[in-house]
Amino acid sequence: MSTTTLQPTLAVVPAQAPAVVDAADAFAVLAEVPPSGGQSARMLSAFPSAVAALRANMARSLLTALGIIIGVAAVIAIVALGEGASAQVAGQLAGLGVNVLTIQPGSSRTGGASTGAGSSTSLKASDADAIATIPGVTAISPVVSGNVQVIAGSQNWSTRAQGVLPAYLTINAWTISQGAAFTLDDNTNAANVALIGQTVYTNLFPNGQSPIGQAIQIRNVPFTVIGLLTSKGSGAGGNQDDVIMIPFNTGQVRLFGSSSINQIVLQVADASQIPTVTADITTLLTQLHRLSPGQPADFTIQSNNDVISRVSSVTSTLTTLLGGVAAVSLVVGGIGIMNIMLVSVTERTREIGIRLAIGAQPSDVMTQFLIEAVMLSIIGGFIGILIGSGVALAMPYVAGWTTVLPWQAILLAYGVSAVIGMFFGIYPARRASLLDPITALRYE
Q: pTM of the entire structure?
């Protein structure tokens, strides 16, 4: 009779039981497991989970996006202010005329001391007549000017009078708001007619009556106002509206009594011709003034285009600098996003472990956290655009500053905010995807 020997059954008991997951948590996590389709389908399935995670901590999400909001708003507002300033300066410089050359006398010496540029009497009206024959010169005007006292009834005002040709108005982009400009016949006849600027008008006619046809006295010489100049505001030479213009012959003969002139202003057909015309003028005046080789020129030539280019370059550089300073807050906002996402990874370690344990791929976990970071940046960028645009549009009414809403800067700031969210979200997302499922399940 055979005997059956019973072997004892050994039960293996783990040293530590894994963390218990309740049914509700398991169901929620299972619902977030990406489908087994293609990569695009798996990425789309991560959006609901990312939105749910952000909505679960709404206040924290908004505070996290605050850095991006402030950064985008600051960039838009500052660039709008810089662009507005550039546009305002460009408008004022355009009032100086385009492709304009100004010829001034050189300096004179008294007792061995130089009296400064423009103090000599080297320029004559005949020089302007000769320069007018140079190819490329489309308009030219000699200018004789000086400070004068003007009287109109019981009012008087100290201002600057300029004797010019009618072409001077075209060269320097002056327009008439009331009345009409003087003509070449007025210049030939040395007529006592005048155009006055807005500042002169305000001080001589404070009651707001029309100045056209009114009698004024300039250095006790009677004149009739025939036109009111359109306001230009402040420019490189000060208040451009504080001026009176009269025919050139009238100014030279009846007011200033000098054969020399203060400057010659001319316009060149095209900017590309300015170097050639400048060289031709230099050669011509050197011959007319009988300057010997090596002798310093008794005149100077300045191009308005150079002034416009330099000022525009300065304003553009300033705008770029201020925009760059404001953009630093975007980087700070990105660091805030990375910080909060790292905290979120720590808080959701157990959830990540469950997802990985039931079939989610590390790339799925990384995608979800990366989407959360980018969504924070995009939402913050959108809110920042609204705030920055609102501030830019309100500045002219609140502070009186000129602004130009920069659509390129808006798109750039929005795109940069999204890139920052992706850049600073990569590290937390990768850290989440590299968690060990067993270790994550034990996390409390």
A: 0.59
